[in-house]
Write a structure and sequence with these properties.
35% of the residues are buried. By secondary structure, this protein is an alpha/beta fold. It is 28% helix and 33% strand. The N terminus is likely disordered. It has eight helices and eleven strands.
Length: 249
Protein backbone atom coordinates (compact mmCIF):
# COMPACT_ATOMS: atom_id res chain seq x y z
CA UNK A 1 0.00 0.00 0.00
CA UNK A 2 1.22 3.52 -0.86
CA UNK A 3 0.12 6.93 0.34
CA UNK A 4 -0.67 9.83 -1.99
CA UNK A 5 2.99 10.79 -2.26
CA UNK A 6 3.93 7.30 -3.39
CA UNK A 7 5.69 6.30 -0.16
CA UNK A 8 5.07 2.63 0.43
CA UNK A 9 4.10 1.74 3.97
CA UNK A 10 6.46 -1.25 3.71
CA UNK A 11 9.30 0.75 2.10
CA UNK A 12 11.85 -0.94 4.36
CA UNK A 13 11.36 -4.32 2.62
CA UNK A 14 12.65 -2.79 -0.64
CA UNK A 15 15.28 -0.31 0.49
CA UNK A 16 17.55 -2.20 2.87
CA UNK A 17 19.38 -4.21 0.23
CA UNK A 18 22.55 -3.97 -1.84
CA UNK A 19 21.80 -0.47 -3.11
CA UNK A 20 21.45 0.75 0.47
CA UNK A 21 24.92 -0.62 1.23
CA UNK A 22 26.28 1.14 -1.85
CA UNK A 23 24.71 4.51 -1.07
CA UNK A 24 25.83 4.46 2.58
CA UNK A 25 29.16 2.68 2.26
CA UNK A 26 30.98 5.75 3.62
CA UNK A 27 28.70 6.29 6.61
CA UNK A 28 30.92 7.14 9.58
CA UNK A 29 31.69 4.02 11.63
CA UNK A 30 33.22 6.29 14.26
CA UNK A 31 29.67 7.26 15.26
CA UNK A 32 28.90 3.61 16.00
CA UNK A 33 32.02 3.31 18.14
CA UNK A 34 31.22 6.54 20.02
CA UNK A 35 27.66 5.46 20.74
CA UNK A 36 28.67 2.03 22.02
CA UNK A 37 31.35 3.61 24.22
CA UNK A 38 28.69 5.94 25.64
CA UNK A 39 26.41 3.00 26.39
CA UNK A 40 29.18 0.94 27.99
CA UNK A 41 30.19 3.90 30.15
CA UNK A 42 26.72 3.96 31.72
CA UNK A 43 26.06 0.23 31.62
CA UNK A 44 29.25 -1.78 32.16
CA UNK A 45 28.93 -5.11 30.36
CA UNK A 46 30.56 -8.13 32.01
CA UNK A 47 31.87 -10.90 29.78
CA UNK A 48 29.08 -13.22 28.72
CA UNK A 49 26.27 -10.68 29.07
CA UNK A 50 23.60 -11.19 26.39
CA UNK A 51 22.66 -8.07 24.40
CA UNK A 52 20.02 -7.92 21.67
CA UNK A 53 20.57 -5.42 18.85
CA UNK A 54 17.17 -4.82 17.20
CA UNK A 55 17.55 -3.59 13.63
CA UNK A 56 21.23 -4.53 13.68
CA UNK A 57 21.79 -3.91 9.97
CA UNK A 58 25.33 -4.80 8.97
CA UNK A 59 26.43 -5.09 12.61
CA UNK A 60 28.56 -1.96 13.07
CA UNK A 61 27.38 -1.61 16.68
CA UNK A 62 27.50 -5.34 17.39
CA UNK A 63 31.15 -5.43 16.34
CA UNK A 64 31.88 -2.71 18.92
CA UNK A 65 29.86 -4.34 21.70
CA UNK A 66 31.55 -7.69 21.26
CA UNK A 67 34.91 -6.16 22.20
CA UNK A 68 33.61 -5.98 25.78
CA UNK A 69 33.18 -9.74 25.87
CA UNK A 70 29.41 -9.62 25.56
CA UNK A 71 27.40 -12.07 23.48
CA UNK A 72 25.49 -10.08 20.84
CA UNK A 73 22.36 -11.29 19.10
CA UNK A 74 21.50 -9.14 16.09
CA UNK A 75 18.05 -9.27 14.52
CA UNK A 76 17.08 -7.61 11.24
CA UNK A 77 14.46 -8.09 8.54
CA UNK A 78 16.94 -7.64 5.68
CA UNK A 79 18.72 -10.80 4.58
CA UNK A 80 21.14 -8.69 2.50
CA UNK A 81 22.25 -6.66 5.53
CA UNK A 82 22.55 -9.81 7.65
CA UNK A 83 24.74 -11.40 5.00
CA UNK A 84 26.95 -8.31 5.04
CA UNK A 85 27.05 -8.47 8.84
CA UNK A 86 28.09 -12.11 8.60
CA UNK A 87 31.06 -11.12 6.44
CA UNK A 88 32.11 -8.55 9.05
CA UNK A 89 31.76 -11.16 11.81
CA UNK A 90 34.43 -13.54 10.55
CA UNK A 91 36.76 -12.86 13.50
CA UNK A 92 34.19 -13.19 16.28
CA UNK A 93 32.29 -16.12 17.74
CA UNK A 94 30.12 -13.94 19.97
CA UNK A 95 27.79 -12.37 17.40
CA UNK A 96 24.72 -14.34 16.39
CA UNK A 97 22.50 -13.10 13.57
CA UNK A 98 18.79 -13.80 13.19
CA UNK A 99 16.33 -12.70 10.50
CA UNK A 100 13.11 -11.44 12.04
CA UNK A 101 10.49 -8.69 12.31
CA UNK A 102 10.91 -6.27 15.21
CA UNK A 103 7.13 -6.28 15.73
CA UNK A 104 7.30 -9.96 16.69
CA UNK A 105 10.75 -10.75 18.02
CA UNK A 106 11.60 -14.46 17.76
CA UNK A 107 12.95 -14.67 21.32
CA UNK A 108 11.82 -15.35 24.85
CA UNK A 109 12.61 -13.18 27.85
CA UNK A 110 16.27 -13.38 28.79
CA UNK A 111 18.40 -10.49 27.51
CA UNK A 112 20.56 -8.40 29.84
CA UNK A 113 20.35 -5.46 27.46
CA UNK A 114 18.35 -4.43 24.39
CA UNK A 115 19.41 -1.66 22.01
CA UNK A 116 17.76 -0.04 18.98
CA UNK A 117 20.24 2.25 17.24
CA UNK A 118 20.81 4.57 14.24
CA UNK A 119 17.10 5.47 13.92
CA UNK A 120 15.82 1.92 13.52
CA UNK A 121 12.47 2.98 14.97
CA UNK A 122 9.36 4.74 13.70
CA UNK A 123 9.26 2.88 10.39
CA UNK A 124 5.65 1.75 10.56
CA UNK A 125 2.66 3.75 9.39
CA UNK A 126 0.55 3.07 12.48
CA UNK A 127 1.50 4.28 15.95
CA UNK A 128 0.18 1.00 17.34
CA UNK A 129 2.81 -0.90 15.37
CA UNK A 130 5.63 1.32 16.58
CA UNK A 131 4.42 0.92 20.15
CA UNK A 132 4.36 -2.83 19.57
CA UNK A 133 8.09 -2.65 18.74
CA UNK A 134 8.76 -0.96 22.11
CA UNK A 135 6.63 -3.55 23.91
CA UNK A 136 8.43 -6.41 22.19
CA UNK A 137 11.86 -5.05 23.15
CA UNK A 138 10.69 -4.71 26.74
CA UNK A 139 9.18 -8.21 26.72
CA UNK A 140 12.47 -9.93 25.88
CA UNK A 141 14.43 -7.85 28.41
CA UNK A 142 15.22 -9.22 31.88
CA UNK A 143 14.06 -7.36 34.97
CA UNK A 144 16.56 -4.54 35.60
CA UNK A 145 18.05 -5.11 32.16
CA UNK A 146 19.18 -1.97 30.32
CA UNK A 147 17.55 -0.45 27.25
CA UNK A 148 18.88 2.17 24.81
CA UNK A 149 17.02 3.86 21.95
CA UNK A 150 19.05 6.03 19.55
CA UNK A 151 16.57 8.07 17.54
CA UNK A 152 16.36 11.29 15.55
CA UNK A 153 15.50 14.60 17.22
CA UNK A 154 12.32 15.83 15.51
CA UNK A 155 13.07 19.53 16.17
CA UNK A 156 16.57 19.20 14.75
CA UNK A 157 15.27 17.44 11.64
CA UNK A 158 12.70 20.18 10.99
CA UNK A 159 15.28 22.95 11.36
CA UNK A 160 18.09 21.32 9.39
CA UNK A 161 16.40 19.29 6.66
CA UNK A 162 18.23 19.50 3.32
CA UNK A 163 15.50 19.22 0.72
CA UNK A 164 17.67 18.00 -2.19
CA UNK A 165 21.20 16.64 -2.40
CA UNK A 166 23.21 15.08 -5.22
CA UNK A 167 26.39 13.05 -5.26
CA UNK A 168 28.37 10.78 -7.55
CA UNK A 169 29.65 7.53 -6.09
CA UNK A 170 31.12 4.45 -7.77
CA UNK A 171 29.95 5.72 -11.18
CA UNK A 172 26.45 6.16 -9.79
CA UNK A 173 24.47 9.39 -9.77
CA UNK A 174 22.56 9.53 -6.48
CA UNK A 175 19.86 12.11 -5.78
CA UNK A 176 18.06 12.35 -2.43
CA UNK A 177 14.85 14.35 -2.03
CA UNK A 178 13.62 15.00 1.52
CA UNK A 179 10.50 16.53 2.96
CA UNK A 180 8.34 16.71 6.06
CA UNK A 181 4.89 15.25 5.47
CA UNK A 182 2.71 15.91 8.52
CA UNK A 183 4.32 13.83 11.28
CA UNK A 184 6.82 11.94 9.14
CA UNK A 185 10.15 12.72 7.48
CA UNK A 186 10.29 11.20 4.01
CA UNK A 187 13.09 10.65 1.55
CA UNK A 188 13.17 9.57 -2.08
CA UNK A 189 16.46 8.06 -3.25
CA UNK A 190 17.07 8.03 -7.02
CA UNK A 191 20.02 5.96 -8.28
CA UNK A 192 21.14 6.25 -11.91
CA UNK A 193 23.94 4.01 -13.21
CA UNK A 194 23.61 5.24 -16.81
CA UNK A 195 21.59 2.23 -17.86
CA UNK A 196 18.85 2.03 -15.27
CA UNK A 197 17.19 4.44 -12.84
CA UNK A 198 16.02 2.97 -9.55
CA UNK A 199 13.92 4.67 -6.89
CA UNK A 200 13.65 3.87 -3.21
CA UNK A 201 11.81 5.51 -0.32
CA UNK A 202 12.22 6.11 3.39
CA UNK A 203 9.51 7.28 5.77
CA UNK A 204 10.11 7.67 9.51
CA UNK A 205 7.67 8.89 12.13
CA UNK A 206 8.70 12.16 13.80
CA UNK A 207 7.98 11.38 17.41
CA UNK A 208 8.52 14.11 19.99
CA UNK A 209 10.67 13.26 23.03
CA UNK A 210 7.59 13.17 25.24
CA UNK A 211 5.93 10.67 22.91
CA UNK A 212 8.90 8.33 23.15
CA UNK A 213 9.05 8.69 26.92
CA UNK A 214 5.36 7.82 27.25
CA UNK A 215 5.74 4.71 25.09
CA UNK A 216 8.69 3.54 27.15
CA UNK A 217 6.82 4.08 30.39
CA UNK A 218 3.86 2.11 29.05
CA UNK A 219 6.26 -0.74 28.28
CA UNK A 220 7.72 -0.74 31.79
CA UNK A 221 10.99 1.03 30.98
CA UNK A 222 12.19 3.50 33.62
CA UNK A 223 14.20 6.24 31.94
CA UNK A 224 17.58 6.85 33.57
CA UNK A 225 19.29 9.28 31.17
CA UNK A 226 18.70 11.25 27.96
CA UNK A 227 21.55 12.40 25.71
CA UNK A 228 21.65 14.68 22.68
CA UNK A 229 24.59 13.16 20.82
CA UNK A 230 27.04 10.30 20.60
CA UNK A 231 29.54 12.09 22.82
CA UNK A 232 27.02 12.14 25.68
CA UNK A 233 26.03 15.82 25.80
CA UNK A 234 22.77 16.99 27.34
CA UNK A 235 19.67 16.85 25.17
CA UNK A 236 18.04 20.05 23.86
CA UNK A 237 15.87 21.05 20.92
CA UNK A 238 19.10 21.73 18.98
CA UNK A 239 20.61 18.29 19.64
CA UNK A 240 21.24 16.12 16.56
CA UNK A 241 20.08 12.94 18.31
CA UNK A 242 17.65 11.74 20.97
CA UNK A 243 19.33 8.93 22.91
CA UNK A 244 17.19 7.55 25.73
CA UNK A 245 18.49 4.95 28.14
CA UNK A 246 16.60 3.14 30.86
CA UNK A 247 16.00 -0.07 32.75
CA UNK A 248 13.11 -2.48 32.87
CA UNK A 249 11.28 -2.10 36.16
Amino acid sequence: MSNKAGYKNNWFTDWFGQDYLTVYEHRDKDDAASLVNLILHHYPVPAGMRILDVGCGNAWHALQFVKSGAKIIGVDLSRVLLEEASKQNTKSNNIYLVQGDMRLLPFKNGFDGVVNLFTSFGYFSKDEENLLVINEMSRVLKQNGFFVLDYLNADFVRENLISVSNKTQNDLSIKEIRRINKNRVEKEIIIDDGREVKKYYESVRLYEPGDIENMLKQAGIVITAIFGGYQGGAFSSASPRLIISGKKS
